[in-house]
Structure prediction request, 141 residues.
Amino acid sequence: MIWGAKNIAKLIALAAKGLSYTQIGKELGITKNAAIGKARRLKIDKSPEQTTYIKAKPPAHKPQPKPIKPTLPPPPPAPVTDMKLLTMMELKDNHCRYPIDKDGETVFCGLPKFKKSFCQEHGAKCYMPPRPLPPDSGRRT
Prediction:
């Protein structure tokens, strides 16, 4: 059912008479639950002395803007001395995966891995050493 002004006025009038929602639904040709739902959305009080129609207001809160994800800067350029400069398809499990931009194409270091995904030189650039704990941190070492 499309709720036009005519059907809303009829719903308000029937609710003002004190009819049950089952009877209102039969009058309008809808289900009891459809009548209840529309009456609640319109904030219609079914008691005869207090039947009013209050237009619902939009929520007062403003939608929060989506947080902007910071883009990471590209990795610092590394000297292209003894690196193998492999493409993605040429990489094996034991190769360093430090990305390098060479003439608009991304290639990778390709030296043997030392720590996680990088060779020793690139691992030192990509990973920070762990910070020492303050003396009063409460942890036992």
